[in-house]
Amino acid sequence: MTDTAPKPGVPGRDQSNGGGRPATSATASSPRGSSGNGRREPVGAPEDRGRTTIADGVVEKIAGLAARDVPGVHALGSGVSRTFGAVRDRVPGGSAKSVTRGVKAEVGEVQAAVDLEIVVDYGESIADVARAVRQNVVDAVERMAGLEVVEVNIAVSDVKLPDEEDDEPESRIQ
Fold first, then answer.
1. What distances in angstroms separate CA 27 from CA 12, 24, 104, one per listed residue?
2. Is it the case that residue 173 has pLDDT exceeding 50?
3. What percent of the chain has pLDDT over 90?
4. Rounded to whole angstroms, how far apart are CA atoms 109 and 115?
5. Within 10 A of 126 (CB to CB), how many other CB atoms are there?
6. C-alpha distances out from residue 64 to 16, 131, 138, 155, Å
7. Tens digits of per-residue pLDDT, 14-37?
8. How far is CA 23 from each of CA 26, 27, 38, 161, rounded to the nearest angstrom?
9. What pLDDT score was predicted for residue 25?
10. Strand 111-121 and strand 148-160: pairing?
11. Residue 122: Cβ within 10 Å count
């Protein structure tokens, strides 16, 4: 036995679907995500509704900036790469100082691996600086990119002595 009595409210209107719309019935040809009552039901969780890809260069920038923030890190990259970078930076129309110099990242769908080449200030504990760089890079990449960082390899290519001149000359233009 079915109940055919009208529902309270506006005659001919189904109050369970928002009140102002005509009642509908579900058919076999209902669109995906439709429950048959005029409302669309979620197809899935938002994270299941598409893909996000993150380029290696994005992770390299994040890692480079995070490494430079650590006290005791004088520069990133080897002496040769810093010298070539300084020359490239001084060419008119050249890019600004590269934050990815000395940084290499491999990015997958859910994981990333980072290789860094750093120069440490003289007098700093290399082990402590490397530990702090590793932690800062892992925190920054995981927070900003949402990727699991599986490894951060650090190569210390030089120690900056207090009386050494920088490889990168000061800009003449201010």
1. 19, 9, 55
2. no
3. 51
4. 18
5. 13
6. 56, 15, 11, 14
7. 444 444 444 444 444 444 555 566
8. 10, 13, 8, 80
9. 45
10. parallel
11. 13
Cβ burial of 161 (10 Å; 0-12, 13-18, 19+) is exposed
Instruction: Give CA–CA dist 8/162, Å, rounded.
Output: 86
The pLDDT value given to residue 33: 54
The amino acid that residue 116 corresponds to is: L
Within 8 A by CB and 6+ apart from 26, the residues are 34, 35, 36, 37
- Which amino acid is present at 51? R
Write down how long the chain is. Answer: 174
Beta carbons of 36 and 30 less than 8 angstroms apart: yes
More confident residue, 49 or 8: 49
What is the DSSP annotation of the chain? Answer: ----PPPSSSTTB-GGGTSSSB-----TTPPTTB-SSSPBPP-S-GGGS------HHHHHHHHHHHHHTSTTEEEES-HHHHHHHHHHHHSTTPPSPPTTTTEEEEE-SSEEEEEEEEEEETTS-HHHHHHHHHHHHHHHHHHHH--EEEEEEEEEEEEE-TTPPPSSPPPS--
